Amino acid sequence: MRVVELTPEAVRQQQPYLDWGLTEDEYQRMVSKLGRLPSFTEVGLASGMWSEHCAYKYSKPVLRQFWTHNDRVLMGPGEGAGVIDIGEGKAVVFKAESHNHPSAVEPYEGAATGVGGIIRDIFSIGAEPVAILDSLSFGELNDAHVRHLVDRVVAGIGGYGNAIGIPTVGGETNFDATYAQNPLVNAMCVGVMDRDAIQRGRAAGVGNAIIYVGAKTGRDGINGASFASAEFSAAGDADCAAVQVGDPFMEKLLTDACLEVSRAHRAVLVGIQDMGAAGLVSSSVEMADKAGAGMRLDLDRVPQREPGMTPYEIMLSESQERMLLCVQAGAEQEVMDVFTQNGLDAVAIGRVTAGHQYQLVQHGQVVCDVPVSLLTDDAPIYHQVGVRPARLAKPASDFTPTVTDIRATWLALMAQPTVASKRSLYQRYDAQVKTNTMVLPGGDAGVIRVRGTHRALALTTDSNGRYLYLDPERGGAMVVAEAARNLVATGAEPLGVTDCLNYGDPTNPEHFYELAASAKGIVAATKALNTPVVSGNVSLYNETDGAAIYPTPMIGMVGLIRHLTDVTPNYFREPGEVLYLVGTTGTDFNGTELQKMLTGGVRGRLFGLDLATEQRRQQVVLAAIRQGLVTAAHDLSVGGLAAGLAEMTFTRGIGATVNYAVPNSLWFAETPSRFLVTVAPDQIAAFEQLLGEEACYLGTTTAANTLAVTTQDETIDIPVAELQIQYEEAIPCLMK
């Protein structure tokens, strides 16, 4: 449906901005700042730029608490992606984004364009994208609608990533009823570049050209930023027109052309930015704002694929595969030629101007003339006061399960969708294109070789909404710790974090409490583990008719493997190796997979995490790996020791004899700060000397395809094949 523009007075009377996400108070704020009634276009631009998705008007006071810099950080929050030094003249560039709302409405295109957008953030910095990861949360698979979402989201991620030629090397998929109406689709992209070649999104230098490159602008995704800043209704009135449509083949051309300009024409490239949320307005305004400059754009010159587009539509379209460049005056043609030779549009649509005004012209008429600051610094910031949720104020009781038959419980646990193998999902992704992938999906973390060096990067995404539902602050810290353990288990030193903060409506004091409290936990853990938050995004309003998801921050983390010989698998490699548990197991069952499996939900007081202990164990395990003492390592998390031990047997069918004389139930506890590791017999003395009391001997690996287990309560032999059938076939069976 085409937009009909109103006069400023008609805008005041008819209040279309209420449908765009602006409140009456915010409209009046615009009037006060301008000293006049704003035009239809000006109000539309503010609706996008003042949305939570762009302005972080509720979350900014929380985000300011994050720890964002250490001596390795080359660029932190505020640009397209974070950048961290990895040595040998190289840097890693990474960012995560959410595409939750679009994926709930149009799951294929929502997921696909989420991948496309995050890739553009990476190459806008000048980095070559080398890996994609995802973090997905859905409702239960007994729901036909959920199965449809799973199928189409996975198809969208694979369809875009596979076509553009970037490997999808890792991720996670969780299932819980809380996400039935509001799935979470978070995508992360990682790139590598020369550390001295960083590009920024700025438009500086009066008279310099503003060049539009990529696909033409259409009417898809108009005001998607506001759409992503509102909750859903079960009535199903979500706007499909707010979902963008992607073209991965054009994205590949755009990627190659932008990287060529960044490298071969760097001397004349002033700035570059993706046209993401809020489209052309956000990219142009943000580039001018960062440089303290003004800008004037001629909308007649914007490539358009549909006739009669209004300024509102042109500026707020979120058509995909588009970038905005600032280029030195006089160098326009040499830069545009790079794009046109690749079959892409490239047009100079404006100039950097003196002063700080943002002006748009169409058909010779000025349709917008506002200070740049109106759309950036003047956006409202709300300092909410959180209220502890009623569920947390109730006396918390501990879940104390009795497991009388460990075999039956173990088999059932391995078939729980959140524990079970996601192979049937990730096998639809190309994980090995570009031939740099060293650890495939299914490992503790994906591992990518850094070409031209002896180094590698370990990559992971992690979340656990159940933990945060029980304790937002402690749960936030636990997710960071879990991500870091995943990296350490592969032989990597954790470097830094990108996040997607997925929550409900921030105007609800209980939901805002969840956001603020979990941020405290994230801050504490990132400081303790020396992993600053260098990029990320916020996705609020993940609720339907007032029913919100569990608070679910997704932590994406990157680690450095200093030498390729340190890359460590998470599976048993040989019979006759010695198995150790690093860490101790407590009666920690609240919020666990076992509790959900046995009771249908989670409740109680979340168990503790000591960050000093966490850091110490991570450091000693990493030291053991680097000294060549460890042959395999696996982080223990969801499903506890039982799940972790089973997973280590599957790859090569190597069994183990294990004697861990604790009650059956403790095999399923999810006590944090634990690893399973194997050690070659000739390294036992050195390993035990290094680890000391941190390591507990469990047994040895065997050639038999069986786990021979002794607990405090019973002794069993369970064939690895039985566990593996449960593990591998659960999701394919449920998806039928």
Automatic annotation (TrEMBL):
<dbReference type="Pfam" id="PF02769">
    <property type="entry name" value="AIRS_C"/>
</dbReference>
<feature type="binding site">
    <location>
        <position position="274"/>
    </location>
    <ligand>
        <name>Mg(2+) 2</name>
    </ligand>
</feature>
<dbReference type="InterPro" id="IPR010074">
    <property type="entry name" value="PRibForGlyAmidine_synth_PurL"/>
</dbReference>
<keyword id="KW-0547">Nucleotide-binding</keyword>
<feature type="binding site">
    <location>
        <position position="537"/>
    </location>
    <ligand>
        <name>Mg(2+) 1</name>
    </ligand>
</feature>
<feature type="domain" description="PurM-like C-terminal">
    <location>
        <begin position="206"/>
        <end position="360"/>
    </location>
</feature>
<dbReference type="GO" id="GO:0000287">
    <property type="term" value="F:magnesium ion binding"/>
</dbReference>
<dbReference type="GO" id="GO:0005737">
    <property type="term" value="C:cytoplasm"/>
</dbReference>
<feature type="active site" description="Proton acceptor">
    <location>
        <position position="99"/>
    </location>
</feature>
<dbReference type="InterPro" id="IPR016188">
    <property type="entry name" value="PurM-like_N"/>
</dbReference>
<feature type="binding site">
    <location>
        <position position="95"/>
    </location>
    <ligand>
        <name>ATP</name>
    </ligand>
</feature>
<feature type="binding site">
    <location>
        <position position="120"/>
    </location>
    <ligand>
        <name>substrate</name>
    </ligand>
</feature>
<keyword id="KW-0460">Magnesium</keyword>
<dbReference type="InterPro" id="IPR041609">
    <property type="entry name" value="PurL_linker"/>
</dbReference>
<comment type="similarity">
    <text>Belongs to the FGAMS family.</text>
</comment>
<comment type="subunit">
    <text>Monomer. Part of the FGAM synthase complex composed of 1 PurL, 1 PurQ and 2 PurS subunits.</text>
</comment>
<keyword id="KW-0436">Ligase</keyword>
<dbReference type="GO" id="GO:0005524">
    <property type="term" value="F:ATP binding"/>
</dbReference>
<feature type="binding site">
    <location>
        <position position="244"/>
    </location>
    <ligand>
        <name>substrate</name>
    </ligand>
</feature>
<protein>
    <recommendedName>
        <fullName>Phosphoribosylformylglycinamidine synthase subunit PurL</fullName>
        <ecNumber>6.3.5.3</ecNumber>
    </recommendedName>
</protein>
<feature type="domain" description="PurM-like N-terminal">
    <location>
        <begin position="78"/>
        <end position="193"/>
    </location>
</feature>
<keyword id="KW-0479">Metal-binding</keyword>
<feature type="domain" description="Phosphoribosylformylglycinamidine synthase linker">
    <location>
        <begin position="12"/>
        <end position="57"/>
    </location>
</feature>
<dbReference type="Pfam" id="PF18072">
    <property type="entry name" value="FGAR-AT_linker"/>
</dbReference>
<feature type="binding site">
    <location>
        <begin position="98"/>
        <end position="101"/>
    </location>
    <ligand>
        <name>substrate</name>
    </ligand>
</feature>
<feature type="binding site">
    <location>
        <begin position="318"/>
        <end position="320"/>
    </location>
    <ligand>
        <name>substrate</name>
    </ligand>
</feature>
<feature type="binding site">
    <location>
        <position position="56"/>
    </location>
    <ligand>
        <name>ATP</name>
    </ligand>
</feature>
<keyword id="KW-0963">Cytoplasm</keyword>
<feature type="binding site">
    <location>
        <position position="499"/>
    </location>
    <ligand>
        <name>ATP</name>
    </ligand>
</feature>
<feature type="domain" description="PurM-like C-terminal">
    <location>
        <begin position="574"/>
        <end position="710"/>
    </location>
</feature>
<dbReference type="InterPro" id="IPR036676">
    <property type="entry name" value="PurM-like_C_sf"/>
</dbReference>
<feature type="active site">
    <location>
        <position position="53"/>
    </location>
</feature>
<feature type="binding site">
    <location>
        <position position="97"/>
    </location>
    <ligand>
        <name>Mg(2+) 1</name>
    </ligand>
</feature>
<feature type="binding site">
    <location>
        <position position="539"/>
    </location>
    <ligand>
        <name>substrate</name>
    </ligand>
</feature>
<keyword id="KW-0658">Purine biosynthesis</keyword>
<dbReference type="GO" id="GO:0004642">
    <property type="term" value="F:phosphoribosylformylglycinamidine synthase activity"/>
</dbReference>
<feature type="domain" description="PurM-like N-terminal">
    <location>
        <begin position="442"/>
        <end position="561"/>
    </location>
</feature>
<dbReference type="InterPro" id="IPR010918">
    <property type="entry name" value="PurM-like_C_dom"/>
</dbReference>
<keyword id="KW-0067">ATP-binding</keyword>
<feature type="binding site">
    <location>
        <position position="121"/>
    </location>
    <ligand>
        <name>Mg(2+) 2</name>
    </ligand>
</feature>
<dbReference type="GO" id="GO:0006189">
    <property type="term" value="P:'de novo' IMP biosynthetic process"/>
</dbReference>
<dbReference type="Pfam" id="PF00586">
    <property type="entry name" value="AIRS"/>
</dbReference>
